[in-house]
Design goal:
single chain, binds zinc ion, 2,3-Dihydroxybiphenyl 1,2-Dioxygenase, domain 1, 3 helices
Amino acid sequence: MKIDHIGIAVNSIENASKVYEAMLKKKLDHVIELPDRNLKVMMIKMGESEIELLQPIENNSKGICSFLEKKGEGLHHIAFKVNNFDETIENLKANGFRLIGEPTLGANGSRIIFLHPKSSNGTLIELCENTKEEA
Ligand code: ZN
């Protein structure tokens, strides 16, 4: 497993991306919309990993909206890339980890699933399927 990306909840990708534009000295403007997850997402490449800026499309007091209401902007989740996705999920379930829902498609098109923060010391963890099967 390695860190694939770090998800950061923001009120405005347009504003938040300026911080990274200043750090990386390049223009960032590629925003992906995931309407079924009520999310606008910007993936920002930082070496081997990425920063994922997450902004709700609509205010609905669920998911990312309730996170922003309760905690404000900031670190939302850490995502690990896993090689044997289905096997990893089965192992985690067998070891008593709580998973949130069923696998869905993430911003980069690979399957993802979340581990409940109560299973992982208060940090929301996302598992992303490694579709390239590198080490
Ligand atoms: Zn993510």
